[in-house]
Write a structure and sequence with these properties.
The structure holds two protein chains of two kinds. Chain A is α/β, with parallel strands linked by helices. Helix content of chain A is 45%, strand content 21%. Chain A has five helices and five strands. Classes of the chains: A alpha/beta, B alpha+beta. Bound molecules: adenosine-5'-triphosphate and magnesium ion (MG). The site of adenosine-5'-triphosphate (ATP) has 23 residues of chain B, from helix 9 and helix 10.
Amino acid sequence: MPKQILIIDDEKIVCDMAQRILSQEGYEVEAFIDSTQALERIRGKKFDLVITDLKMENVDGMDILKEVNQRYPDTKVIMLTAYATLDAAIEAIRERIFDFFPKPVKIEDLKRSVKKALGF
Amino acid sequence: MTIRNRIIIAVVIQAAIICLICVFVYLSFNTVLSKLGVIEIIDDLNISLLEVRKSEKNYFLYGDVNALKEVVERGEEIDTVIQSSKADILKSLGPGTFNTLLSNLNKYLDMAREVLATKKTPVKFEEEFRNLGHELTRLSEVLLKRERRDVNRIISTSITRLIASLGMVLLFQLVVWQYFSHFLIKELAIMGNLIQMVSQGKLHEVAKQTFSPKNEIDYAIKALADMARELEKREAVLLQSEKLASLGILISGVAHELGNPLNNISLIAQGYLGLYDILGDGEKKNFMADVLTQTERISRIINNLLDFSRQKKQELREYEPEDIVERSIALVSNQIKISNVKLHKFLQPDLPHVYVDAPQIEQVLINLLINAIQAMPAGGDLTIDVGQDMTNGNLVVKVKDTGAGITKEDLPHVFDPFFTTKGTKGTGLGLSVSYGIIQQHHGDIAVESEEGKGTTFTVKIPIYQPKEREGDAQADIDH
Ligand SMILES: Nc1ncnc2c1ncn2[C@@H]1O[C@H](COP(=O)(O)OP(=O)(O)OP(=O)(O)O)[C@@H](O)[C@H]1O
Ligand SMILES: [Mg+2]
């Protein structure tokens, strides 16, 4: 069974592109522009990997991260953010986080990180 | 001079005047007393002389030698009295009269002694003797009168002088009181003014007060000025850090705003290259269209930033406010149509003209109208009310909605650049750009809001005053 990946970013292009490329790699990918809906989805389904933007309206990346860590201790989280501030990175690292990417994201790096996270 | 020193000087002068008056009174009483002593002596002398004259008269009436003896005895007594109080008598008679008195007395006594010794009365004795006696009494009476007159004179001048000096003391008191009250009131008024200025926030004017303090109130004023200077410094530091803080917000905002579309373009390009072989023509087209949208987004952000930093030149012209308002409403009419919002428009008739950059003011009103519409996703009432400020005639535009309102925490930040609660749908520049535009028009923009009830934005713009505004506009353009 293919690995399940959830992508959350309020930029539609990020969702589309990541979904497209990661599907190409053989993963099963769901993508959400609306983080509130994504949170609902997480509550209902366990993913192997969650890739989320940090700064979003209402429910932000930190909320997603906390929710995932609390519910699914073996689900990995990769965080994306448009501007990497030290504060955000430190806060994210305090929580259990697999990787952290400042935007603009290099697809090759992301692919490698995803592979590593899913144990290939 | 310090107030303390001024008071000391006033008190010392007062005390000195009172001391002088006391000395003067003492001296006057002293002369009066000594005069009274002299009067007593002269009075005695007078009485004794009258006695002598009585004996003299008896002698000539009855030829009684004993009477003549009595004349000599008493006369000698008088002589000793005169000799013993020579100093006093000399003072009031002067040496000339005194000597006449003394020599007359001696001549008189000598005549009497000679008659007693020779037992013969020379020719014309009676006449000369009587004349001498008469002269003696006359002199002593003159003396008495003069002394009495002197005493009266001294007493009356003393009284007038005393009254005059009391008057002087009172006058001095009055002058001192006047001086102090005037001086203190003046100084206190200065201080009161400064304190009022501080409370009105005109720190700079208070801080400007540099002078060398001369008295206690000056010191208080100086302390006040020092305080204002210190406050001003702190305010400047605060302002600077606020500026830096908003610069920080601006920079991180720009980074975030530009970071997202850049990331998107980068992802599209990477995807395009990576998936090139399996992408259909239609998909490749879509990718490029996405790139275009993202670049447009970037240029929109940059345009907003330019507005924000007010790089665009203002073009001021005279307009009727109605036109500007109507045009702004027309530009959002579509949005109103597709929403459930009902527009209410109140335009006061005969509004004064404004001298503005119309597209900019329209941009402000559009920002406010769109914000209001966005605040009422489920519909509501949007009111635009255009009138005049009662006090200065300035144009007042109120944009009011019955939407979600703004939380107390957000309210102070709505004019901050990049502050938005709308995620990627808002840049958070609308209000900060509007704020900048209104500032540049020497106007004012303010917000009132109650959560759950609605929000009112109030814009005030100075009315058109031909002469005054022309120079201003020129200055702005030069700037
Ligand atoms: N009428 C309003 N009612 C409620 N909130 C408002 C209103 N107007 C402004 N705000 C709040 O102020 C914030 C800043 O407004 P501003 O116009 O500067 O940016 P924006 O509307 O979020 O973005 P943009 O103007 O670029 O679309 C808004 O995100 C919103 O939270
Ligand atoms: Mg807005």
